[in-house]
Specification:
It contains 1 helix and 8 strands. By secondary structure, it is mostly beta strands. β5 (102-110) and β6 form a beta hairpin.
């Protein structure tokens, strides 16, 4: 009797876990790597490992701009970097895992402001990512919710 109850529990666990084996890696809740559409829906960021940490670069921008020109990093505090295109720019860097589906100690660069902030991220589910940028402590910051973008999202010319 006891062994049949253990066997039933084992089969129940297998029935729950087996479908997960067929879910694509990019759709698993614990996998942050991939393409993410920012909250404003005007950019897609490709998050990927950078050594032991995570980083993310702009791979798509909503274009054309009203003036028809390529979006530049024109608010960068370093004048030598103001002419570089935003497309291809690494905006996220130095994120390390801090728990299940959480990353911290990272930084996020806002090309719209020309400012870099401390940041953390949390995967809410397989297709939803909460990104929080802040100054000093997390209390003094702003969060955005990003959604997973399609793998076939077109890439901007310089990415």
């Amino acid at each position: 009797m006891k062994s049949s109850m253990i066997a039933r529990r084992g089969l129940a666990a297998l029935a729950i876990a087996a479908p997960l084996a067929f879910v694509p890696a990019a759709a698993r809740a614990g996998d942050i790597a991939g393409l993410w559409l920012v909250e404003a829906k005007d950019a897609v960021i490709d998050i990927a490992p950078c050594g032991e940490r995570l980083c993310g670069a702009v791979v798509w921008l909503k274009e054309p701009r009203p003036n028809g020109q390529v979006r530049l990093d024109d608010k960068n505090p370093d004048p030598a970097l103001r002419a570089r295109p935003v497309c291809g720019l690494r905006l996220l860097y130095d994120f390390k895992a801090s728990g299940e589906n959480e990353w911290e100690d990272g930084h996020i660069y806002s090309a719209d402001e020309g400012a870099t902030y401390a940041a953390k991220m949390a995967l809410l589910d397989a297709n939803t990512l909460k990104v929080r940028g802040f100054v000093g402590i997390s209390l003094f910051g702003k969060s955005q919710v990003w959604t997973r973008a399609a793998a076939d999202t077109p890439r901007c010319a310089t990415a």
